[in-house]
Amino acid sequence: SQAASRSTARPGASSSNMATTSQRSSAVGMGNDEFTNLVNNTVYYILVADQHKTPIKRKDIQKFVLKDHSKSIKEVLKEAKQKLSEVFGYQLIDLNDRLGSYILVSQLNLSDAKDFLNRNDADNARLGLITLLLALILMNNGAVTEEKLWSLLSLFGLQSEVDDPAFGDLRKLITTDLVKQAYLEYTAVTDTEPPTHQFRWGMRAIHEASKLTVLEFVCKVLGNGVRPEQWTAVYNDIIRYQQQEQQ
């Protein structure tokens, strides 16, 4: 499985981790074994819940996993985050929303995304669609109106009015499902007549997809030896963004 293939615990980390675990279990008045069991159950719950690719709610972890120990969630999540990162290679991202939601992210593998027009492979088709959407948003200065997005998608044979053979109700998938899964943000544009909406990259996309990799995807689709640097404005924005992230 993907989780198993990510098992890359850092050498030499175990002794310091044990000390940290002991400190955290003491902080919440629990023995090491009981605390570790709660952490492991939380990690398992998060991995299973992530299969739906919808945000994982803090209150659900408290209700279904921690139960009588719900007040220990801060320390349990600290330990769970560490284990998810070191053992499975995932990041647990706090969305900082009013519901107290988290998403589990890893780097998207875009190597097969250029085959997105092959609708027979459901996984590749979905990954390709997500990558295409992110690319169209990226190439439109980070935001694209709903009307323009559908116009661009029609060039790839993707229509909002009819069910797609691979994706079914494409409008619902893009405006609802991928928004719930935090790949896209879908917001109303103020002071427009008639009212319209726009799309931006969602939190999951920001953490899972490299903007430079998405730009490279665009170049592969276009072919003819097109290089990322030739998209001067977009490329320079990406470089500035990467420099800010490193500061």
From TrEMBL:
MAGE domain: residues covered: 35-238
Polar residues: compositionally biased ranges: 1-26
Disordered: region residues: 1-27
A Pfam family per the record: MAGE
GO cellular component, one term: nucleus
InterPro entries reported in the protein's UniProt record: MAGE, MAGE_WH1, MAGE_WH2, MHD_dom
Protein name per its UniProtKB record: MAGE domain-containing protein
UniProt source species: Ixodes ricinus (Common tick)
